[in-house]
Amino acid sequence: MLTRLPVWILVGSVMLALNAGFINSVALLSFASNAVSHVTGTATILADGVVTGQSALVLHTATIVLSFIGGAVLSGIIVGNEALALGRRYGLALAIEALLLIAAWKAFHMNHMAAEWLASAACGLQNAMVATYSGSVIRTTHLTGIVSDLGAALGNLLSGRGMLKAQFALQSAIFVAFIAGAILGSLLFRRFGYDAVLVNGVWVGFVALCYVFMLARRKRELSC
Predict the structure, then answer these.
(1) Domain for residue 146, yes or no?
(2) Tens digit of pLDDT per residue, the chain (224 long)?
(3) CA-CA distance, 205 to 31, in Å (whole number)?
(4) What is the DSSP string of 44-106?
(5) What is the pTM of this model?
(6) Which residues are within 8 A (CB) of 147 and not within 5 positions of it... i.e. 6 or more apart?
(7) CB-based contact 167:1 (threshold 8 Å)
(8) What CA–CA distances, in Å, run from 98 to 43, 120, 160?
(9) Less Cβ around it within 10 Å: N or C end of the chain?
């Protein structure tokens, strides 16, 4: 179980959750009005389309879900393991995510549905990239599991069983960062339109560089 929280994990999780809240906010406010950082609501809309016989809706929502899955598959190919550990190819995965978001920016400007597919693939890649650390589940693109875990932790505290403070701090930080990212995404979308997505792509590229530099520094320290 998570009892100690390395600073790089906390900072990285916050930066990625901020990104997910941002892109999901822009996608919901866009011409297509669909979420891209999770698939629960999209799958429900898909199911309703099946019941009502709306083939176009079924096709569109299915492609969003499949794009998310495709991003997760790509993460599995690149990173290879869901357990968070320094040295894995997160820098490459994040660089590809940044490229997907920049491509989504171009597609949003063209009012093309590919924008949602690309943004959803980026979120699927990110969500699968970091799944567990020290027995704790880490998800940065949606809040359902995070909120459930926070509620359970508070229930344990109130019942006198205590709580894992490091885990609670991590999940609280992810929750706040996702909301902050959504607020920022909404503000920038209303100010700059789809150019806000370009900010998103640059941000993820920055996170990738931070990881690469941190990893290089750690290797130099270990070699000394």
Answers:
(1) yes
(2) 566 778 888 888 899 999 999 999 998 888 767 888 888 888 999 999 999 999 998 998 999 999 999 999 999 999 877 777 777 889 999 999 999 999 999 999 998 889 999 999 999 999 888 777 666 778 888 888 889 989 998 998 889 888 888 888 888 999 999 999 999 999 999 999 999 999 999 999 999 999 999 888 888 877 76
(3) 25
(4) HHHHHHHHHT-HHHHHHHHHHHHHHHHHHHHHHHHH--SB--TTSSHHHHHHHHHHHHHHHHH
(5) 0.88
(6) 175
(7) yes
(8) 25, 12, 44
(9) C
Residue 109 is which amino acid? H
Number of domains in the chain: 1
- Residue 153: domain span: 7-223
In the chain, the largest separation of any two C-alpha atoms, in whole Å, equals: 66
How far is 183 from 185, CA to CA, in rounded Å? 5
